[in-house]
Write a structure and sequence with these properties.
alpha/beta, Rossmann fold, seven-stranded mixed sheet, 10 helices, 14 strands, 22% strand
């Protein structure tokens, strides 16, 4: 088992005929993801990498059958329309890769997802990768690299940084720590599946034994994970690193989702909350692999 993506999920790519859509469809297919359809309005009837293209999501569903996931590679101003179309057609998971999606649009997507019982990851995400089973988006950059870098196993990774999602997985794997799923929750201020949601998915995954979290200053995602630990809703070990220690109030660190405002979202506050809740928090990113081994034992 894994979270969000495995080798049984049937995947649609919205914006498949664009340059980014084509390149990432190639990555996903080569890694083993089941891409069953693509969608670009006005481009129906084409094939991209042997994937049939449709004008609408509804047409794709009516032709190829159930679609579990959509991966969205359309311009930011078109994201809301694309995701709402997919959700209304019955797709239960959307991975929104583009950045700079208007916050109001994200809030509309969130409301629609709740109404239809769907979920979304992003915006501004590299996606999700379940090791050896499937990838949604662009984690790893190339399928061969992703297969080389990430060792299969029982540790889940959740990260607010795209680059550090891959780096965390790489360094854990190099230490011999196998991974179940890697999730880049997205770098924007408002995202569909923040750390607490992903941590709960890992908690409920019988094939994930521990969770490694790359956190950052700004927002309250990490404090909410601490609350889950404190309440007992999450009982699996959490090993974390919080980036942005040197940032001052009002500083933007890395991306829009990492900014300290009004004394909230500070590095010290996040570290304190997590440690008091029982998480292992390291002071240096490169200490994550050793700390994980110390917590779960040598594989």
């Amino acid at each position: 088992m894994s979270i969000l993506i495995d080798d049984t999920k049937r995947v649609l790519v919205q914006g498949i005929t664009g340059r980014e859509g084509m390149a990432r469809t190639k990555l996903m297919k080569e890694y083993g993801t089941r891409i069953v359809a693509g969608c670009t309005p006005g481009k129906g009837g084409q094939d991209v990498l042997e994937v049939p293209v449709f004008d609408t999501v509804r047409e794709a569903v009516e032709t190829v059958g159930q679609i579990d996931v959509t991966v969205v590679f359309v311009p930011a101003q078109l994201v809301k329309e694309a995701v709402l179309e997919a959700i209304e057609a019955g797709v239960k998971l959307a991975v929104i890769v583009p950045d700079r999606v208007p916050i109001h649009d994200v809030l509309e997507i969130s409301a629609a997802a709740k109404y239809h019982g769907a979920r979304f990851v992003g915006p501004n995400t590299l996606g999700v990768l379940s090791v050896g089973k499937g990838v949604l988006g662009m984690i790893g950059g190339r399928a061969a690299a992703a297969k080389d870098w990430f060792k299969p196993g029982r540790v889940g990774v959740t990260s607010r940084s795209g680059g550090m999602t891959s780096s965390t997985g790489y360094y854990l794997s190099r230490e011999g720590i196998g991974l179940s799923t890697l999730v880049h929750v997205g770098g924007d201020a408002v995202v569909g599946s923040p750390h607490p949601d992903v941590v709960e998915l890992f908690q409920n995954d019988p094939e994930t034994d521990a969770i490694v979290m790359f956190g950052e200053i700004g927002g309250s995602q990490e404090e909410r994970v601490a609350e889950l630990l404190h309440s007992g809703r999450v009982t699996k070990p959490v090993i974390a690193y919080i980036g942005g220690k040197a940032a001052q109030e009002g500083t933007r660190f890395s991306h829009a989702g990492a900014i300290i405002e009004g004394g909230r979202g500070t590095h010290n506050g996040k570290v304190k909350a997590l440690r008091e809740a029982g998480a292992t928090v390291v002071d240096s990113f490169m200490d994550l692999p050793k700390a994980t081994v110390d917590v779960i034992g040598r594989p």
